[in-house]
Amino acid sequence: ISHKKNNNENYTITSIGRRISELYIDPLSGKIIINELKKLSKKLKSYNNKDLNTSDLKDYCTQYLLYSISKTTEMMPLLRVRDSEWDYLFKEMLKMDIDPDEDISRSLECFKNSKMFYDWVNEVPENKILEEYGIEPGILRYKVEQAKWILHATKEIYALLDIEEKCLSDTLNELEIRMEYGASRELIELLKIKHIGRSRARLLYNSGIKNGEDILNNRKRVIKLLGKNITDKIISCIKGY
After folding, report:
1. Which whole number is the average pLDDT over 52-65?
2. Backbone dihedral angles phi then psi of residue 89, each to the nearest 5 degrees
3. Which of 67, 69, 37, 35 has its CA nearest to residue 167?
4. Which residues contact 79 (CB under 8 A, 6 or more apart)?
């Protein structure tokens, strides 16, 4: 915020401006994140009046947030959109209630980038993502690392805004973990436990073990799935040993 005094400009740093600086993100990215969080909050409020369940709202929120972070400068360069993809991507954006910016071409690139992240956090096999989006493994890993950073920054900025939207808050917390592991929402409780990554979490979940309590109550079954050594380590972590 600038103030003029004796024809000179004095600047006062706001709390959110200071936090953006501390997060080492582009101030323009900070502005984009703030604007998109406010837009999403308004959209969620309107959706709350409709008969949408929590899961559907969170899924929409997830897709919108991934699109939002794809608009930041840290996500450059974006995925190239082929001519054959324009119509499909544009219609899908409108269907998702995402308004393209004036630069439609760049909006479509951001949206395609967000679709790649969406596949990642929904456990689409890496080789399929690489083939679908025409990228190399190193590019995918780099983009995921950037996304983790910007999602963390988004969560920090959200905490300073005058927005109280539970679905948005919950989704941000979940999405940070999901991006880290490339995992679906249902695996989050297991992923919070040390020594459990995406593969082990999926193996346990598919066997009906969905959280730490289930692990403690089904030690023999977990041993059959993961082996005794790793099971003992996991149980020790759960019990706080």
Report:
1. 90
2. -65, -40
3. 37
4. 109, 112, 113, 116, 133, 134, 135
